[in-house]
Write the structure tokens for this entry.
Amino acid sequence: MAELLGIFWLTRLTSRLAVSKGYSKWYAALVPLMWITTEFTAMFLMQVFVPDADFVLLMFVGVAGGAVGGAIVYWRMRLRVPQGAAVVMPAAGTAAPGAPAPPVTQAPGGSQALAGYCEQCGTNTWLTPEGACERGHDADSVSGVYWALRR
Ligand SMILES: [Zn+2]
């Protein structure tokens, strides 16, 4: 009974981890599969190499082997890289006016600055922290604001 709870718990743990990393929760189905496979393997090896072991020891080694098998599935998911991590920012001057702003992300090794389309300039410009055009036009003239990497 305790073993069933162990399998159930580890399967749920793996399922949550898989979903949080952007993988299918069905990856967790490998946990009971691996558990049972390694459990029977461990019990089989015990019967081959320690034929006079008593039943309690046999069960203990079997369950321990199963737990190791399940834990391997969990650890393999832990070591995986999350899916869909990188987002590439467009440079200022490429976004069309009124285009939806790309998501705000922190780019490594560069400073982010606000950019947007200025009606007075007729092009995309860098913005002040207040959201106004860097060339002196106020924020009412600016639309399509987005973050971009300023080199
Ligand atoms: Zn301007």
User: Anything to note?
Assistant: The chain has a mean pLDDT of 81. Helices lie at 2-20, 30-49, 55-78. The chain has two domains: 2-78, 87-151. The beta strands are 111-118, 123-126, 142-150.
